[in-house]
Amino acid sequence: MSTASIEDDDHQAVSDDEEEDEDLEKYQPFTVDDFPRVSSEFDEQSDDVFQNPDIQLRGPSAMFLFQTFNDPLIEKHKHFFGSQYQLYDESEVNVNNNVRAIDCSHGCHCVPSGVLQFIDLKIAGYRHVQPRCANIFGFFAVRENAEPLRNYVYRRGINNYEAVNVKRDTGIAHLSLTSPARCIHMRSRVLFEFKLSVRTDDQPEDGPKDDILIEGCTEFTEFMNMYKAGPFIETRRLYGEKCGLDMKFLVLRNAVQAKVDVEILRAPVDGLNLNLYAKTSGFRDVICLFSGVTESGCRMSSVVGVMRYSYLILCISLYFSGCQLQAFHLVSNSKVFVFVPLLINQ
């Protein structure tokens, strides 16, 4: 091989490395400085989100952000999803009424279907300029088309805000999903409806005020991932004017909704610190069902989606009087998921 050829090959190799470094630098995740900020106007979402190639390369797959049903500039009967999901009805789904306990230990009596199980919810690209935590409140709810009532995945009032740490560079902050109805029946499509705000106390004499971060709605359908035949994890992002909203959830087929009931029979006077986690259907992602302090007589219910011929793992962590206790419970059956009431006793 000639010297010229070797030099050309070396030059080509260096050029390739430089191009790869440029690509890596170019397609880094968005920061608060370059995060796309888009209104929920149809044209802006179409052009600034779905015509922008960086969107798909520097963050989760984007979803279309539609205007909120209560937008005063929109006639209610003309809203894209108003009649389909009865957005005029803000009633909440009752978990105890909708999820009926069935004993399948001697044979399956459940009717499996598709379910959507939420794992994580977080804001992204939020420029938080205050030195302390951001006080987030509002709601995120899911409606299914068969019974289009609100399944609250996240719900906090202005006086029950959540203080979250916001990463200064990416503007990301995780929200705690403590609602019991994070598993939603899904025939083919569901609607995400939300309004998240940050509480401001700049002028205490005027009382707390709210600054809307992101609000609106969007629809998720199974046809968005037709190439995925089995169960899968989906991570999606919505782009708003002040921040984005990231959603992570499981889409399970041939599954049932398992209800986990927890009762605290006895607890110390100062309360019992309880953490309850779950893993479902062979996925490694941890689902936080509850995390906080409870007391004697406290009862709580959570709903988790589980595929048939699979299993559910529950992890219970208790902290009291300087001691820690952990227990794992695997619920499974060779034929079908088995409902088991769970009692925690100090």
From TrEMBL:
* A Pfam family reported for this protein in Swiss-Prot or TrEMBL: DUF6598
In terms of domain of life, where is this protein from? Eukaryota
- Where the record annotates domain DUF6598, the positions are 116-319
Species source reads Triticum aestivum (Wheat)
Q: Where is the composition biased (Acidic residues)?
A: 1-24
Q: Which InterPro entries match?
A: DUF6598
Region (Disordered) residue ranges read 1-30
What's this protein's name? DUF6598 domain-containing protein
